[in-house]
Amino acid sequence: MTIKTAVADLTRRRFLGCTAAGAALVASYPALAAPQAPPARPLVAAAGRQALAFGTATHLVDTWNYGGAVPGPLLRYSVGDRLRVDFENRLPEPTSVHWHGLRPPNAMDGAAPLTQPPVQPGARMTYEFDLTDAGTYWYHTHFRGWNQQDRGLYGVLIVDERNPPQVDRDLVLVIDDWVVTRDFTLDTSFGDMHSAAHAGRLGNVATVNNSSDLAIGLSAGERVRLRLVNVANAQIFALKFPGHAPVLIAEDGNPVTPRPLGDEHLVLGPGQRADLILDATAEPGATLQLDADTLTDQLHLARFVYGDAPGGSGLAGRPVAPLEPNARPTPDLANARRIPLTMEGGAMGRMSGAMMGGRMMGMRELVAAGRVWAFNGVAGGMEAPLATLKTGETVVVDMVNATAFPHAMHLHGTHFREIERNGSQVDGAWRDTTVMAPEDRVSVVFVAEQPGKWMFHCHMIEHQSAGMMAYVEIEGERA
Ligand SMILES: [Cu+2]
């Protein structure tokens, strides 16, 4: 960083943290507050080899990654900062970077080819936008994700709160699953229609930060913040922390009223995140597990390994305070526009055909075209918007899962909250991805915030590419 950019950054930070008097000063002297380009952070996507610990052995696996490692570099900012990433594509095919859960302007959303042309091999693109929300987010490819994301193109993005909770340590746990062959190379049968028509590509090995048996060191008496991110293509992890009593403080980056998990599993669908406060309440020398039930298995994911001496700063056992909410428009439920969205198709489904490319196709023709799922009778509806909305408009999407599989519905550009689930009113937290079991009926509300074309799709990547995708078009000025 040059002195000039360092000073620009410092100046900008000072004004972001300004008081009312400071704001008046900014207003009086606009030249002082003129936006400065933040220092750029390089991010390169390339093929590489990654050491992954499967069981007791470490294997070198061929991956595609950001910054030379899987997961990619941890991008960390403070709320109010401006992200600027100079992205370079050194992959053998086009790609893009999506900032999952953040609210950038549409052109920075990275949903190629809807919001930008894909970045060609050898080409670059600068992503730049303000980080308005604190929380745990992630970035990943949004082009041929069934191939690229599965090979490892993802990383975590943390936006720190103005007043973060007091903890001894802040730990990021990235959960993925891999389809590996007998000799522990990556199975590259990406895009097979059998997986696509069923639950998606499910791995035979699950890892946390590159290990199927991660040892997480703890000292008795410590308080840690765990940031869990499910980056798997399709797997759902229902996490358990036997012997610990973690408190949930955020879902998909958004603060929730602190809630002890108790005996409840913490369900993380593809794309979802959770922030937990975990107090190290076991005795020195203890080992406790992090386990998960999945769609196919019961897994051991990681171990909490206590050192021989107590540690920490005496925070364990204190009440857990809520995080400050992120600012967002308030929905006007009384005047909401309602959009029905019925999911159909897949194996064991009742779909006999769907619209694709503007015409009706039977199942055989759809399968040949790689499409086996549909929203409202349209397979891969990217030819026309699901709805055209005005900025500021409140929208309720009434979703029905009329398929035999669970799905993880993800909306770009804003967050939604559940208001109804299977006939019962609920007061859901703000989030960007929600999991629906077969036969579930879920209604979510959101406010159309920023103009542009925003994808709404299943985050089980094979389902998305095989038809479970749509977008809403928002017109007007930013709400
Ligand atoms: Cu799905």
Keywords:
single chain; 479 residues; Immunoglobulin-like; seven-stranded mixed sheet; disordered N terminus; binds copper (II) ion
3D architecture notes:
The protein has three domains: 3-33; 40-325, Cupredoxins -  blue copper proteins (Immunoglobulin-like, Sandwich); 333-475, Cupredoxins -  blue copper proteins (Immunoglobulin-like). The chain starts with a helix and ends with a strand. The longest helix is centred in the first third of the chain and has 14 residues, at 3-16. A hairpin with a 2-residue loop joins strand 14 (247-251) and strand 15. 10% of the residues lie in helices and 42% in strands. Mean pLDDT is 91; it is low at 1-34. The protein contains six helices and 33 strands. The protein has 479 residues and is mainly beta. The structure holds copper (II) ion. Copper (II) ion (CU) binds next to loops. Copper (II) ion is lined by residues 407, 458, 460, 463, 468.
Overall residue-averaged pLDDT value: 91
Low-confidence stretches: 1-34
Report the bound ligands by name, code or SMILES. Answer: copper (II) ion
| Beta-strand residue percentage | 35-45%
Radius of gyration: 22 Å
- CATH class descriptor name of the largest domain: Mainly Beta
Backbone shape:
globular
Within the CATH hierarchy, at the fold level, what is the topology of the largest domain? Immunoglobulin-like
**SS-derived structural category:** mainly beta
Largest sheet: 7 strands, mixed
Estimated helix fraction: under 10%
